[in-house]
Amino acid sequence: KCLPELKTPTFSFQSRHDELVSMRSCQYLAAHPYITNTILESSGHFAYSKIDTALLRRKLKEIIKKLASLS
Q: Whole-angstrom Cα distance, residue 2 to residue 15?
């Protein structure tokens, strides 16, 4: 209900094979201008593949660098 009020850049990570969270959630979030979605292609809700773990690390490092440049 509060999502339309969101004005802060937000990052979403969705596992394609998530057993609990539907990919429809990603479509809903993708419509929001402040949300950046990343799909983890070969992971589930509880376990991440090595490839997706590496992707998460890269993306999180990018986010940290962006935040550090703001200060």
A: 23
Dist CA 29 CA 4 (whole Å): 10
C-alpha 47/C-alpha 19 separation (Å) is: 10
Collapsing DSSP states into helix, strand and coil, what is residue 68? helix
Nearest to 17 by CA among 1, 52, 41: 41
**Which band of pLDDT confidence, cut at 50, 70 and 90, is reported for residue 64?**
very high
Instruction: Kindly give the pairing relationship between strand 10-15 and strand 35-40.
Output: parallel
